[in-house]
Amino acid sequence: MADRHDKALGFATRMSHHGRAGAKAHGFVNPPVHRGSTVLFPDCESRKSAAKQRYEQVLTYGTAGGPTHHMLEDMIAEIEGGTRAVIVGTGLAAVMVPLLAYLKAGDHCLMPDSVYGPARNLADGLMAGFGIETTYYDPLVDEAGMRALIRPNTRVVYTESPGSHTFEVQDIPGIARAAHAAGAKVLMDNTWGFHNFQPFVHGVDVSIQALTKYAAGHSDVLLGSVAVNNAEDWNIVKGAASQLGQFASPDDCWLCLRGLRTLPVRLKQQAENSLVVARWLETRPEVLRLLHPALPSHPQHAIYARDFAGTCSLFGVVLQPRYADADAEAVVDALALFGIGASWGGYESLALPTSPSITRTAKDPALGGPAIRLHIGLEEPEDLIADLAQALDRLPR
């Protein structure tokens, strides 16, 4: 098998060849699923030796993972540009594990006001109950502004770029400089930027992924990952995952591995489709503006262009202020090719009204009208445009 860090190979080539025996090996192309709970040892000394390596890719017990988990760990670390990754059962578990790993009673956490809703619920609920204080900050804060927000007991600066529903692009390098100067760790939900944003290059310490989305790619898997770039952070994150009993089904890991084989072509095609649809939507009179970082009209497009190598299929549409939330719902209901459901990153297009779901306590996002979130799938963009056109045509003039 090619060296996991052989960057001379292109992304699509690495996704095709890593995590399997190799092109010249005898046997099936795809590795098998390894399921198991009990691990047997030839003698007591072997078992004691394995226990000393419990955070490494050795067989100790089923919850510590097996060959299928290890292959997926290596693939995610490769994509994220890190050294190690731990696989957990859901994207929300991937948010929880590092937060609880680095924070304890009396600590302070900074979290962007645009954060994923369940992450906010975790901070306001379980973390608050543990005596951890969270302050929500303007996601557009600059380096100086972040320095002013950090307290002596701030241990974690959490980031998510672009922000959930409102798609603000954060200045991650500037935020990271401020955080590191104060001794705080930078955690990032990098799901939107999977592959296209290299977190450790830009100062992130821990990168969080909902593998449910692009990695699996077919809307039939729940998984998350937490990637790091050094041994110290690995021991902290892996230790927390182990103590919290976090485990991912090997069958789901196998499905995710299969999804990663086609990730490069899906990412590329869905990104292209999203831009075709978004540019058309910008011409519609019913639309006030697009929340798509790859469009020059996006307020933080310059930061996006500086830090991201490509775009994603998820973006927002803000309708004119003369429309209400009920009108946004009517548009979504009228769509024939877009499913109505949570999640994204699969091959199918999705639409959700988002304005009622937006919670802000630090700064009003001031969208200007009701918003709809669109995920663009692998359908022909012309068909999606025709579907959107007939739905928008129903709005009152």
UniProtKB/TrEMBL annotation:
<dbReference type="InterPro" id="IPR015421">
    <property type="entry name" value="PyrdxlP-dep_Trfase_major"/>
</dbReference>
<dbReference type="InterPro" id="IPR000277">
    <property type="entry name" value="Cys/Met-Metab_PyrdxlP-dep_enz"/>
</dbReference>
<dbReference type="InterPro" id="IPR006233">
    <property type="entry name" value="Cys_b_lyase_bac"/>
</dbReference>
<dbReference type="Pfam" id="PF01053">
    <property type="entry name" value="Cys_Met_Meta_PP"/>
</dbReference>
<keyword id="KW-0663">Pyridoxal phosphate</keyword>
<comment type="similarity">
    <text>Belongs to the trans-sulfuration enzymes family.</text>
</comment>
<dbReference type="InterPro" id="IPR015424">
    <property type="entry name" value="PyrdxlP-dep_Trfase"/>
</dbReference>
<protein>
    <submittedName>
        <fullName>Cystathionine beta-lyase</fullName>
        <ecNumber>4.4.1.8</ecNumber>
    </submittedName>
</protein>
<keyword id="KW-0456">Lyase</keyword>
<dbReference type="GO" id="GO:0016829">
    <property type="term" value="F:lyase activity"/>
</dbReference>
<dbReference type="InterPro" id="IPR015422">
    <property type="entry name" value="PyrdxlP-dep_Trfase_small"/>
</dbReference>
